[in-house]
Amino acid sequence: MSKVQRGTRPWRSIDSTVLLQQLFVHLGTPILAMFVTINSGISGYSGFLLVWFFLHLVTASLLGKLGKKKKAVSDSVFEVLSSAAVLVFILFVLSVLQPVFQLGLENFQVHHLFEDAKDTGVDTSLDIGGLGHALLGTLLTVGLATLFSLPIGVLAALYVTEVRGILTPFVRFFVQAMSGVPSIIAGLFAYAVFIASGILTYSGFVAAIALSILMLPTVARTAEEVLKLVPDDLRSAALALGGTQWRSVRMVVLPAARSGLVTAAILGVARVIGETAPLLLTAFGNREYNLNPLEGPIATLPTYIFQQFLLGTENDVRRAWVAAFVLLVLVSIVFSIARLISSRFKQA
Amino acid sequence: MDEMDSISTYNEPATESVTTPRDEIIVTDKVPTAMEARNVNVWFNDHHVLENVNLIFPKNSVTALIGPSGCGKSSFIRTLNRMHELLPGAKLGGEVILDGEDIYAPGTDPVGIRLKVGMVFQKPNPFPSMSIGENVLSGLRLSRRKVSNKSDILEEALTNAGLWKEVKDRLNVSAGSLSGGQQQRLCIARSLVLNPDILLMDEPCSALDPGSTRKIEETMMELKESMTIIIVTHNMQQALRVSDYTAFFLAEDGNPGEVVESGLTVELFHNPRDSRTDDYVHGRFG
Amino acid sequence: MTILHEPEVVEPREIIISRRFSDKVFRAILVIGGLFAFVALSGIFGYLFITSLPVLQYAGISFFTDSFWYMGDTLLPSQGSIDPPQLGIFAMLWGSILISVLALSIAVPISMGLALAITHFFPKIVSRSLTFVVDLVAAVPSIIFGLWGAYTLTPHAELWAKWLNRNLGDVIPIFSVEFEYFGQSPFMAGIVLAIMIIPIITSVAREIYGSVPRDLITGAQALGASRWTMIRSVVIPFGKSGVVGGAMLGLGRALGETVAVFFVLNIVTGNVNWFNILESEGGSVASFIISRFGEASPLEVQALFGAGLALFVLTLVTNATATLIVNKARRRR
């Protein structure tokens, strides 16, 4: 009896010469580029990157031509271009995140999360005061906004999935159109209706109105998707058992979509938690804790960052970075929770 | 209680569909009727799917609706509990008589009809967010019926469905943990809780293994003592096993479906009047 | 059992569904919920329009075609003004378009490269992590991009701008400047916006590039096409309308962006910077509104409402077009 042969992949030749050639190109080119940059007077980091890019185009094509699988020059060019695009993007993203983590963490003190700014003036040392009032303000306004937009979003989604009436394409179209409203317009509108008219002052409530305008499309769209995932034969079964449409939706459809609807709410939160412009127009900002959403300006993390940064002094800018760090951590937590729940829901 | 003459003998075989007007009128026993379909026609938008179905369903019997797929049996059965109108583009002609009244008469409450005419579907569909016990009693919640002896009703329904022994110790477990056959019996129990006069079953065993099928067929035979059962089935042996009466549906060449022949099961199978029936029950097409 | 009825030719009857009262109420509530978006959109448009109407009527069409922002004594002639305001937001409108188009020209190639790498080039593990990173960037708040623009990007972009101007400024007109100050410019705003909209475009491009029918790909491969040739001749044409739609979605986002560009733009209201992206002169409607809002008199607030209205219409049209294109591209597959 012959031994059972294990399958191999003969088309993937891991040849030592090929490996060496590839190593040479991918490591050698940047070194060569460094050499060229230094000697030719092209300045700076970005100059080096540019030189590396062009050199790599040349070397990769050469490698392609000489290698075992003769690659077309165009293939090599494409690979270099594509990888360059990815690299540029990653580099930029890293450069965006780097100061947030470095400057934010460096200056972070735990008491920042709990104290407000009533004892701090301009350019006060970071040992005094904190951003707790802004953190709370964010949680308060976003929470209120969820309270407003979640029910309406679910109702809109239910119209599409349960009533399935002739207005369905219009409902979907306008929900989609609403997602294109710029955040500053939402803020302007809330300001115009509630503050300019004198009904209310700068307050958490008005800010929540502006945020719910921005949240609603996300919530409605996600809710529609998850409600559509509920199989129709569950609805049939409920109706066949003598349920009215209302009772069928309440007792069968909505419970079946429960975790998906939570995802919809969380995705909505993730959408608005970092919004600045509408909050500048409606919540304005405050130095102290403000627990009353109906009265008085209220600080939120994004507006706090904005205002601190504009002050320009060393300590205030540092506070801005700390706040940016806290905000980013908050957004990442919300984002991860959303993905966790939605992946578990899709498995079910 | 509606009474209607039932025909047990006839003079000569007809060559066309036996719903054409006939000259001889034979009157024999009187059999109480649970439900009657009069000239029922089904359209979806302009597509005429079912034509002039006239059937009587006698009380405490099992009637099988057989025929090749696509000839309107499932559409027909859904007209009997007013589930047909939920489909987009659904249209209806004719009448369905229950307890002496047309269930489609204006002002009739469809929800109330469904309490009298229960339905079990092809694919078992227990509610995933509820436990076994909650599933069985869900009909009470959905129809807002107040009862005092919930656990008795629960046990009775599950016993009648042949499932009590297997699940009595795990009523709080999610319904998804049951096998396909058990889930389908759960759905039957769920329908039984509402005490319907008529139970519609749309190919209830087609997704199940032979063992579960057998158990459900046994259940059917027991249930018919207290209710009337109408079952759509592709399985002719099943029809022979369980049903008292059979109706054969057929849709030929792009024409709407119709009832070619109907009558006592034994006679329809062993002595069919129409040649098409003869061909079908002998498996010459399907 | 057969029944002795005449088989009449029957016409479909009207099935009257008598709903229970609770269902009637339920369905009515759902209709209201469904139409809420429409009501909200009309409400926003209507309210902004009504409150800015006096100012718009005073300024006339030049509000949108002129470039001027002088508040005078903040009174309208109808209110007895002796130094009436002069208002025109064209420079800001054009500025929004300029920086957004610039952002697109940077973002679209990079997004395409990213999307192609993810769907056709990188191994699965790398693709999945890269997709995760891209989606993560989409969630980063815009204020952080604003900080980045002011703090990290400015020094570097200043050097790039100087280089571009010095070496290519005479040959390529968009790189020429009048005043050699490179601290803030539409160029920088374009870069900041580009990073922000790359995730949006990449997401759409990734979806469409990943759904090219297998047989189109294998057909090209069977004809001996190399990877790039296959991508160039099959994938990219297939994904064209999807990428266009994604780009327009990105455009809509860029037009409405406020704080991200606030720190890197020098807002000049009296003069239109047409093409000199390296020039430290420009603006965008959104950042203009936020810059004036803090100290605006009631009349200026009304005028800013009018500016907001213009921006609203612009983004609405852009997004509606984008949705149509993306939906059409999705339906094709």
Characterization of the model:
The complex is a heterotrimer of chains A (348), B (286) and C (333). Chain A is an all-alpha fold. In chain A, 72% of the residues lie in helices and 0% in strands. Chain A is flat. Chain B has ten helices and eleven strands. Chain B has helices at residues 73-79, 110-116, 132-142, 150-160, 164-167, 180-192, 210-223, 236-242, 265-270, 275-281, and strands at residues 2-5, 30-44, 47-58, 62-66, 90-98, 101-102, 117-120, 198-202, 228-232, 245-250, 258-264. In chain B, 47% of the residues are buried. Chain C has twelve helices and two strands, in the order H-H-E-E-H-H-H-H-H-H-H-H-H-H. Chain C has a two-stranded antiparallel ribbon with strand order 1-2. Chain C is flat. Chains in contact: A-B, A-C, B-C.
Features:
heterotrimer, B: 286 residues, alpha/beta, Rossmann fold, 6-stranded mixed beta sheet, 5-stranded antiparallel beta sheet, 10 helices, 11 strands, 30% helix, globular, disordered N terminus, C: 333 residues, mainly alpha, MetI-like fold, two-stranded antiparallel ribbon, 12 helices, 68% helix
Q: What value does the average pLDDT of chain B take? A: 85
CATH class of the domain at 60-83 and 109-281 in chain B: Alpha Beta
| Oligomerization category of the chains in this entry | heterotrimer
Described by strand count, sense and barrel closure, the largest sheet of chain B is: 6 strands, mixed
Q: Unreliable runs of chain B, pLDDT <50, ≥5 residues?
A: 1-28
Number of strands of chain B: 11
- Tell me the domain tally of chain A: 2
Element order of chain B: H for helix, E for strand: EEEEHEEHEHHHHEHEHEEHH
Provide the fold topology.
The complex is a heterotrimer of chains A (348), B (286) and C (333).
Chain A: H1 16-40, H2 44-66, H3 73-107, H4 132-163, H5 168-178, H6 183-195, H7 204-229, H8 232-240, H9 245-256, H10 258-272, H11 277-282, H12 301-311, H13 314-347
Chain B: E1 2-5, E2 30-44, E3 47-58, E4 62-66, H1 73-79, E5 90-98, E6 101-102, H2 110-116, E7 117-120, H3 132-142, H4 150-160, H5 164-167, H6 180-192, E8 198-202, H7 210-223, E9 228-232, H8 236-242, E10 245-250, E11 258-264, H9 265-270, H10 275-281
Chain C: H1 21-59, H2 62-65, E1 67-70, E2 86-89, H3 90-121, H4 124-139, H5 142-168, H6 186-209, H7 214-222, H8 227-238, H9 240-256, H10 259-262, H11 285-293, H12 298-332
Antiparallel strand pairs in C: 1-2
